[in-house]
Amino acid sequence: MSSIETEQRRVAIFENLVEKLGAEQARYIMDNHPPGGWEQLATKDDLKNFATKDDLKNFATKDDLKNFATKDDLKNFATKDDLKAHEASTKEALKAHEASTKEALKALEASTKQNLDAGLKEVRAEMAQGFADITLALAEIVERVNKTEARVAGVIYTNFVNLLLFSVAVIAVVVSLVI
Length: 179
Known about the structure:
Layout: H1 3-21, H2 23-31, H3 44-47, H4 53-56, H5 62-65, H6 71-74, H7 80-178
Helix pairs in contact: 1-2
C-alpha cells in the first residue's frame, strides 16, 4: 500500500469517526494512532541491532582523526614504483658485491696456498736438516759404541788371556805337585 493510499484511508477513517463521535474525539483517536498502523511501529526486537550511546563511545571523533596522516603527509612516503626501483638497485648491488667477494676469496685462496707452500718448504728444509743432524749424532754414537765395544773386547780378551795363563800356571803347579 502506497503512502497516498494510506493517507486517503486515514482521512476516510477520520471523517467516519467525526460523523459518529464528533470532531474532538475523532482528532484524539487519530492523534494517538500511528499514521501507517501499529504494525509500522518499531518494536524492542527491531531496536536491538541499533547502536547505543555506549557503542558510539568507541568510535573516532574529529579530534581523534587529527592524529591520522593526510594526503600531504603521504606524499613523502615511497610508492610501489620507488620500492621496485630500490629492489632492482639493491639486487644489482648484491650481484656486484657477490662478484667482488668471489674475486677476493679466489685471491685469498691463492695467497694462502702460496703461504702454505712456502711454509711447507721451510718445514721440509728444517726436517731435512734435523734428520741430517740426527743421522750425524747417531753415527757418532755408533762410533763411540764401536770404540767402547773394542775396548770392552780388548779388556775381555786380556782378562781371558790372563785367566788362561793363570789356569795354565795353576795346572802346572798342580801337575808338578802330583808328580
